[in-house]
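Exercise 7. Predict the joint structure of the components listed below.
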Amino acid sequence: MTAATTRTAPPDNDVLWARSLHYAHGGTPALAGVSLGVAQGEILAVTGPRGSGKTTLLKCLSGQLLPHQGEVWFNSGPVHTLSTGARERLRRDRFGWIGTRPELVPELTAWENVALPLLLAGETHRAARRRAVEWLERLDAGGIARCRPAALPQDQRQRVAIARALVAGPDVVFADEPTAPLRRAEGAQALRTLVAAARSHGMSVVLTGPADDAAVTGAADRTFPLVDGRRASGARAGAAQAAGYGDGGAGAGAAGRAGANGTAGAAENWEDPCSVSA
Amino acid sequence: MLSLRLARGSHPLVLLRRLLVACASAGVGFLLLSALGHASPEQLLWCAAPLAATVQFAVAVARTDPHAKPSPGLSSAGFGPAAAPAVAAVTTAVSCLLGSALALLFFLHLRGDLSGLPFDGAAAALLGAGGPLPVVGALTLLACVPALAAAASAASLRPRRTAAQGSAAAAARLRARREAADAAGTAVDVPHPGGAAGDDPPVPADLPWGTALATTGLALGAYAGSFAGAGDRAALKLPLPGGSGDAAPAVVASWALIAAGLILAGPGIVHLCGRLLCALRPGALRLLAGRVLQQEARRVGRPLGALCAVATGGVLCTLVWPDGDGARSLGPLTLLGAALVVFCALATVGMAALEAKRARTRTTTALLRLGASPRLLRRAALLRTAVLLAVFTPLAAALGELAALPLR
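Solution:
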């Protein structure tokens, strides 16, 4: 468990920032000194083979796991020192999560699943329902609002999961291999839906996928290749590749951020967020 | 052998549950042997209640066993869902056989047939010592619990078409309809699984049948009671356990019908409790509590119905038991039987709740990932418990009052 350090806060234009993250699952290292930053409105793809630590990295960034070493900052506030309850509130109010599987609550209908984050935040039933149905319609899933997950095909379930992640207007959406359970065409469509919705609302997205998945790397402003819990050498800090994915409005700023591969000109002791700590 | 090897490596809590099954089986075996010792068919008839409760408990324990659904490791080794019922049956049979063997030893010892140990023959009169004990009859009775429990466990865990498979087929049909509609340029209606109610899943179909059975039982009891009240004293009477009097067979049959009706109606009642919780624009707490109750109605409804039937029996006993000068003690065998029934009914509800919790592990993880606090989930569980208590307690009290009317 990392204690609070006296480091200077990360750059202002990074909505999410992590430094030298280490994590091990029962003695097996999953992350070995990963650092990265995500700018406001940026779509970042963390790519790598199975077992490279992508999911663990996303869980550390979203506050589901506390890194054994290293720091995670969100909007210039430390996440790694927050209490369990505060991290729950952060996940509920500021983050969205899309899992490898849709992970819907089977007892609830599609609109109830989408409205759940709002209801958990204390919004009234009527307002939560209205916003949930709006989001479902925005994602072309309005017709299934009253269906239960078991009665829906997988692509529709994933669409509901995307709506659930976006409905509370999060600052950052984490998508852990969102196209994994889908066929290629359905996966590309789901990814387009997610990216377009995130761009139009100025949300940052951190998504994971295999390195050879063109749909994932093509949808992202920047890729962050991960191998064996470290950033792979020769990483492609690509230019904005958002052509065809959303309106690109927010992506412009993200593209500028993406090319920098880190944020220069911050505090004196600032380290390249994408550098690898040995 | 695989069952024994799996059992040997089980968690201590799993072993404790199996030990409890063995204890319950021992209790029933002891009661059956006592009835045989007295050569009393009436006493044997009353053993049906603890026997049924023990079998239900053994099935519930088998369903919560970690190997009820084979792990990926076992599946990779070729131990799939088809083999799970066999392992469950063997494990349950071994637990119950252990209990039966213990029952036989205790029975013979307390009866005085085994000498040289303390308390040798301490309950000789109570257990009908002096007369011969038919060996074949004793072994047959002792084999009842293991055989019934093993068969019921295997039947309960047999592979069947799951809801997920059914829904996958429904989804495939929907997709085909959509494609056909797209090709024809027409719209297709998406079916709502909730039917007319929309957001609510359908109520289990057993509710009307259960209600009909329970009301038939009440009517039969009242009818038989009115005949008894008319002075038909020469009719056949069944002695009640513990020497608390006697009752006409029709009255006893009415109690059985009421119990069966409650067990059958349990899932429907639980489902309606869930619907009640979700009514009128629920927040997250009521929505989660209610919908989970609706979803788990089938799993926890029957054990709750059985527990409600036991509570009804308890109310009935307190009402018909002679008080004042006529009061007598229950007797150790009646106490043992009553304790067995109550323990098994309570433990079965606990096992069903555990099974439901296990089945929802993935959903709980997803909810926590969404930011739902564990406190909210605990409050939802408490709310579910409170609503079930608020509904089932008055129901048991009212049915107990009505069932006692023929004996007053």
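Discussion. Residues 1-7, 235-278 of chain A have pLDDT under 50 and may be disordered.
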